[in-house]
Amino acid sequence: MKRQYTPDNVTELEENEIFVFGSTRNGSHLGGAARIAVQKFGAIMGNGFGPQGRSYAIPSIVGGVNRMLIYVNEFVNYAKANPDKQFLVTKIGCGRAKYTEQQVAPLFKEAYFVENIVLPEAFCRIIEASLQPEQIKAKEEQKKEIQELEDSETKPIRKFKIVGKIDLSQFKTKKKKLNAVLSSTNENIFIIDTNVFVEAPLVISKIEKRFRIVLSAKVIDELDKLKVSFSDNNKRSMVGTALKQINEAMDKRNNISMELADLSLLPPEFDKKSPDNMILSLALKFSKANPIILTSDNGLQVKAKGMNISVISLKDFLSK
Question: Which domains are present in the chain?
Fold first, then answer.
């Protein structure tokens, strides 16, 4: 598959394309690509980060080139969660921010391998020079296999996380794992553990809208604490993105709610102060609605299975 590059001068967009530009944190879009984003693609003055109209802002004047990485990572996660869009990345940071292409390009190394992100040719050349030929070849072969699989399936798999060489038999097995826990009716509800939001902050967007989502009050409380307690800037950012998406989803979807645990439903041997057990009690509270606990926690999975509550790991869910 031939690689595409962002044109030097983007003056119009196709229906599914998003213009990605560099901004200041306060959103003063006064020059360069930022001005074009305001004039042509719906960027909003005063909004320095994230999607706006048919554009996406990545702060580049942030006190140092490496500080851009947290915003670049959030952009990459957003692009992965919106595979129906194609994101045209401009030479972010190489204008008013006065960074060189050699300084900025490495920040987009992960983006280089995301199919719906298009980078400037100069960025791609710098990234390719830093990679071993075997790495590039392996990634290109993987992309080719993904494309072939998409062509043969009615559902696109761009949302799915696939590591290494694709084994179609494994793919079908994982798909069965989700189907095995779904009811034949629309009465399933999803209960999402804290660790899932930390690992995949946009997970709600991957759950079909026909399914109800019940959020544990304890999970929301834990996320609110983690957004300031994590020492890792990237993890703090992921938690912030998760809370933002939860907030937006509760406004847009009428089948998402936050509920309190009912500890009286737990076996007497279970610790009533355990966050995992609070999530488990929520599933017991909604037992008639075929709850599915989405968690990467092996301990919670074991307890849920022991009480005949459906459970699926994040890895298996994303591979559905």
Answer: 17-130 (3.40.220.10), 133-165 (no CATH), 168-318 (3.40.50.1010)
